[in-house]
Automatic annotation (TrEMBL):
Coiled coil: none annotated. It catalyses: N(6)-[(R)-lipoyl]-L-lysyl-[protein] + pyruvate + H(+) = N(6)-[(R)-S(8)-acetyldihydrolipoyl]-L-lysyl-[protein] + CO2. It comes from the Bacteria. It comes from Rothia koreensis. PROSITE patterns: PH_DOMAIN. Its EC number is 1.2.4.1. The lineage of its organism: Bacteria, Bacillati, Actinomycetota, Actinomycetes, Micrococcales. Keywords: Magnesium, Metal-binding, Oxidoreductase, Pyruvate, Thiamine pyrophosphate. PANTHER family: PYRUVATE DEHYDROGENASE E1 COMPONENT. This is Pyruvate dehydrogenase E1 component. Residues 1-38 form the PH domain. Mg(2+) binds at D244, N274, Q276. It holds the Pfam family PDH_E1_M. GO terms for molecular function: magnesium ion binding; pyruvate dehydrogenase (acetyl-transferring) activity.
Length: 913
């Protein structure tokens, strides 16, 4: 098949399937249209075409849905604005940036170092960046506020190279690329990692797909702040630089409809369409630009294609019969890639030679002239025109599809090659060719001294190039990227806000989810603090008992509520508002995590601390979006992550994929996450209070953490806070909840969250049935106890002359007699984390295996984590120690019918929230 037949779905196919019954008449219409364009310009022609389409629709003539246009630039030449900069001076220092970026990676490839890096990525996007940095991207000191720019991860050498020319980085720091520890304070992270270089990077982007998703929610959050009257963000813009291969990630396209529905005209995607992914072409047999154009246009975005540089303008103007455009339309991406890896003569034969008309069109051009036909991503005039139109587009987001060449300017060994992404070294000949092409004043002798010692080049701070560069950044409000991590003042809640949570529920039963939601409502009522709270919910508000928020706090929707709500007469009616406080993202945990990330870093991006409270079905948190939480940690986001309906047996009836028995294990791998598994409302109150002080207070500590609480939907009687409660124990991970009340052989029962009532039940059974004395401990955080223990061990190892610090859990259980039995509604690995820090015999009961639909009591008996199982395990350990008769454990198994799942009693029925 011909290319046009196999790719009709991604070509401009307006006449596909229709026959031309009068060629002469068709020619007359086309001539008339061409005359209109020539005499009155493209804007008038656009209006006439649109008016004709409108008239055709009124006459019931089928009008095609135009999802793809011809493979040419969207903005006509006569509509391109004047380029406002100094073209020559910008070209000069763009060459310096390309050189220094490549040399930095090359120098890091010394045999004794060999840490890798990417040379070709920045080479292909330099123009896209520089047009923005010289004319569009606002720094944080701009009166209208700074832009948020998501730079492509693999192109970080270019950002470092610019910072070097700007005087923000030294040569020693460039030489510390990818050597963050071995180069000490001169080390530079590989990619945009705010946590690694927190005064420089704003957004981590190299986990592909998260950048575009996070950018959309950042733009939405900017509008949210504006609509709620918290900050005027009307002049701030979000830019996301993406790869065409990256657009295959589901997250890259998964929230496009949100951007269109919310009319996010403060958002621009710039897709670097170099037609290559990491190993080869993105769509060798197709056309990724056309595919993306259709996708974005269908999602409601404004699409601008920047495919060809200015050198093509005259050729396209001479294309009277459309042969050149036809060839452009039909040429496959794999061929376009090959052309830039070959020569001008190859392009003449294999591209222009496909038609007599196009072959004649370039007959007076040399092979060098043909090779010099640039692609749009490398033409600053074309890119400037696209950026300007994007900024002027109102009512919808914009995507710019800019066609370029990966490895542009690096020479034939790099440009367009399949392996170019992995190529990290330049040969001596490569260096010389690259130097000559960029006109860098470095001699052959300097290059030949040391293959890996090619020098950086800086023209001096008083040179015209550097003065111009710095003046442009000064006018635009400061350097980009740049991150301000100042700890902003936030008035924290009064003690009154926590009082209800500490009172308990009296005789009523309430799940810890409800206890948390009630506390959240009280926090939102705090006069100074409340407006800073941003509840984020992925379409489960009613499950969590948060529908009570709808009438008062309202759901954020920039378009308001323009329909008649079906439940408008009810007290808890669904209510949307442009000033709404709740971010209700729909069935979209990835989007909710992106929203959390944007809100949680507001203290840096906007200078205003906001407190995200993301509450979700716990199984669909860290399991589904763990990578996004890691990016949130890298972005130094702060806030509360609430895993509601937690536990492998507590979410009765839901079944396998809803039963969360392992999220704390995943969370434990994220160093920024502080996980707590509270049993009661008063524990939640102290943990939340500590979390707010930790993240938003002024204490001398690391504020860049996230507090993750697992809460349950099982109703229990919430006790009032004991008068002498061990607050330090609650916030550090463990405290004695209820000492034994009888004398006898001793054991210790440790439990967390919903398992604490089982431990209390087991305490009673041990005393009543077996005369065994048991202390019950509430473990609010197994994870934090382990971290503290490991830190103590590490300190002892590295400082053998100092007195060893005793881990907190060891201190708390000092003097606690007897074996320990630990249980929770999670897998064994969760309680097992503290085993090494305790001298006592230690046994873990865990909900190991897959979840299933059943009653709570039945499921707990099946996993043998319930009260009776705790009793039996404690008796077995006491028998092994010889403290009770050896036959007692077997008697207990018979007494409690331990193998009968219908005999379990640990747990209540019901409780949706």
């Amino acid at each position: 098949m011909a290319p046009s037949e196999t790719n009709d779905h991604i070509l401009s196919a307006l006449t596909l399937g229709l026959s031309d019954q009068d060629h002469e008449e068709t020619s007359e219409w086309i001539e008339a249209f061409d005359a209109l364009v020539e005499s009155q310009g493209t804007e008038r022609a656009q209006f006439i075409i649109r008016r004709l389409l409108q008239r055709a629709g009124a006459k019931s003539i089928q009008v095609p849905t135009v999802t793809t246009t011809d493979y040419v630039n969207t903005i006509p030449v006569d509509q391109e604005p004047e380029f406002p900069g100094d073209e020559e001076i910008e070209r000069r220092y763009r060459a310096l940036l390309r050189w220094n970026a490549a040399v930095m990676v090359h120098r890091a490839q010394r045999p004794e170092i060999g840490v890798g890096g990417h040379i070709s990525s920045y080479a292909g996007v330099a123009t896209l960046y520089e047009v923005g940095l010289n004319h569009f991207f606002r720094g944080q000191d701009h009166p209208g506020g700074g832009d948020q720019v998501y730079f492509q991860g693999h192109s970080s050498p270019g950002n470092y190279a610019r910072a070097y020319l700007e005087g923000r980085l030294t040569e020693e720091q460039l030489d510390g690329f990818r050597q963050e520890k071995t180069k000490g304070e001169n080390g530079l992270p590989s990619y945009p990692h705010p946590r690694s270089k927190e005064d420089f990077w704003q957004f981590p982007t190299v986990s592909m797909g998260l950048g575009p998703l996070n950018a959309i929610h950042q733009a939405q959050f900017n509008k949210y702040l504006h609509n709620r009257g918290i900050k005027d963000t009307s002049q701030q813009h979000v830019w996301a630089f993406l790869g065409d291969g990256e657009m295959d990630e589901p997250e890259s396209r998964g929230a496009l409809q949100l951007a269109a529905n919310d009319k996010l005209d403060n958002l621009t995607f710039v897709v670097n369409c170099n037609l290559q992914r990491l190993d080869g072409p993105v769509r060798g047999n197709g056309k990724i630009v056309q595919e993306l154009e259709a996708f974005f246009r269908g999602a409601g975005w404004h699409v601008i294609k920047v495919l060809w540089g200015r050198e093509w303008d005259q050729l396209l103007e001479k294309d009277e019969n459309g042969e050149l455009v036809r060839i452009m339309n039909e040429t496959l991406d794999g061929d376009y890639q090959t052309y830039k890896a070959e020569s001008g003569g190859f392009i003449r034969e294999h591209f222009f030679g496909r038609s007599p008309e196009t072959k004649e069109m370039v007959s007076d051009m040399s092979d060098e002239d043909i090779w010099a036909l640039k692609r749009g991503a490398h033409d600053y005039r074309k890119v400037y025109a696209a950026y300007k139109q994007a900024m002027e587009t109102k009512g919808r987001p914009t995507v710019i599809l800019a066609q370029g060449v990966k490895g542009y300017g690096l020479g034939s060994h790099f440009e367009g090659r399949n392996a170019t992404h992995q190529m990290k070294k330049l040969t001596l000949d490569d260096l010389k060719v690259f130097r000559d092409r960029l006109r860098i004043p470095i001699s052959d002798e300097e290059l030949e001294k040391d293959l890996y010692g090619a020098p950086y080049y800086h023209p001096g701070k008083d040179s015209p190039e550097i003065k111009y560069m710095l003046e442009r950044r000064k006018e635009l409000g400061g350097f980009v990227p740049h991150r301000d991590g100042s700890q902003r003042e936030l008035v924290l809640p009064s003690e009154k806000a926590y009082s209800v949570a500490k009172k308990g529920s009296g005789k009523q039963m309430a799940a810890t989810t409800m206890a948390f939601v009630r506390l959240l409502k009280d926090l939102m009522r705090e006069k100074e603090f409340g407006k800073h709270v941003v509840p984020i919910i992925p379409d489960e508000a009613r499950t969590f008992g948060m529908d009570s928020f709808f009438p008062t706090s309202k759901i954020y929707n920039p378009n308001g509520q323009n329909y008649l709500s079906v439940d408008r007469e009810l007290m808890l009616a669904y209510k949307e508002s442009a000033q709404g406080q709740l971010l209700h993202v729909g069935i979209n945990e990835s989007g909710a995590t992106a929203a959390f990330t944007a809100v949680g870093s507001s203290y840096s991006t906007h200078g205003i601390p906001m407190v995200p409270v993301y509450i979700f079905y716990s199984m669909f948190g860290f399991q589904r979006t763990g990578d996004a939480f890691w990016a949130a940690a890298d972005q130094l986001s702060r806030g509360f992550i609430i895993g509601a309906t937690a536990g492998r047996t507590t979410l009765t009836g839901e079944g396998l994929q809803h039963m969360d028995g392992h999220s704390p294990v995943i969370a434990a791998t994220n160093p920024a996450v502080r996980h707590y598994d509270p049993a009661y409302g008063y524990e939640i109150a102290h943990i939340v209070k500590r979390g707010l002080e930790h993240m938003y207070g002024t204490g001398d500590e690391d504020h860049n953490v996230m507090y993750y609480l697992t809460v349950y939907n099982e109703p229990v009687v919430q006790p009032a806070e004991p008068a002498d409660v061990d607050v330090e124990g609650i916030v550090r991970g463990i405290y004695l909840l209820k000492p034994a009340e009888v004398d006898g052989p001793r054991t210790q029962l440790l439990a967390s969250g919903v398992a604490v009532p089982w431990a209390l039940e087991a305490q009673e059974l041990l005393a009543k049935d077996w005369k065994v004395s048991a202390d019950v401990w509430s473990v609010t955080s197994w994870n934090e106890l382990r971290r503290d223990g490991l830190e103590a061990e590490r300190a002892s190892m590295l400082n053998p002359k100092d007195d060893a610090r005793v881990p907190f859990v060891t201190q708390q259980l000092e003097g606690a007699v007897g074996p320990i039995v630990a249980s929770s509604d999670f897998v064994s690995e969760v309680p097992d984390q503290i085993r090494q820090f305790l001298p006592n015999e230690f046994a873990t009961l865990g909900a190991d295996g897959f979840g299933f639909s059943d009653t709570r009591a039945g499921a707990r008996r099946f996993f043998h984590i319930d009260a009776h199982s705790m009793v039996v395990r404690a008796l077995e350990m006491l028998a092994e120690r010889g403290e009770i008769d050896a036959d007692i454990p077997a008697k207990a198994i018979d007494k409690y019918d331990l193998f009968d799942v219908n005999a379990g009693t640990s747990g209540t029925a019901g409780g949706d929230a």
